[in-house]
């Protein structure tokens, strides 16, 4: 068994718009990242594929190319915003290399592919919990990744601070 | 957000007979446990409930009390053996308190309950993967726990060293 901790570790954190993934990143920074080792932190954002819009009458020709490009542009803005926010959270790291990566596609596929492609030693992500009904059909992103990637997966849930909203 | 890393962390590792859970423990020792902090490591073994034996003709009165107590005794031996093996792996820890706990019941329930009861800050476990078909019906222990515990869950898969057996 190799001594992973003293070697370079490639720690991938899947970030998205949600607060939970930022909490996962912060938990990882405090609990997993070691300033003494040669860790590389990879911040990955999966840009959702262009959504399929269906109009009420099913015709679906509602969006002009102007609007389509506005959606695309918005999507890029979101990606940049998420990655910038995540990078800011890592600004105090001294000895850790921080890399960022934005890839388009279903987050489930993107994350699994990137773990493999970039040789991550551990994947960190929020629990990405859908509601009960949606989960029954789709499965959550974190479940899918935990089942399909080869490396250890750390799934972090944001603690609920509002007890009333804790359902 | 509290600075968990400098406070006492309660790290629970669910161990069982399988090599994967021991690999998860070793990964945790190298990558999560910090000798500088006041970590407490809790080794938890869920002793499976007494299995229900059904004879081929459905009568089920096959086992005498002698045999039942032999099964019970074997089950205790296994629990002790697993816990001892896990403790040996932790023998080099200097500043980390190691606690052990054996509880009877379905591992899914036992692990979730103990995380809550003992106030674990992170749960570490093997992926406990069943085969595809069994998983479709039962779900895996790790999936269940990842969905149901409140704290971060680290799911560790044992890397397959034998490529031929890597299906």
Automatic annotation (TrEMBL), chains A, B:
Sorted UniProt keywords:
Coiled coil
InterPro entries per record:
Rossmann-like_a/b/a_fold, Universal_stress_UspA, UspA
From the UniProt record, list the coiled-coil ranges.
76-103
Name under which the protein is recorded: UspA domain-containing protein
According to the record, the segments passing through the membrane are none
Which source organism does the UniProt entry give?
Rhamnella rubrinervis
Classification via SUPFAM superfamilies: Adenine nucleotide alpha hydrolases-like
- Annotated PANTHER family: ADENINE NUCLEOTIDE ALPHA HYDROLASES-LIKE SUPERFAMILY PROTEIN (PTHR31964), OS05G0357525 PROTEIN (PTHR31964:SF125)
Q: Which Pfam families match?
A: Usp
Q: Which domain of life is it from?
A: Eukaryota
UspA domain sequence ranges: 9-157
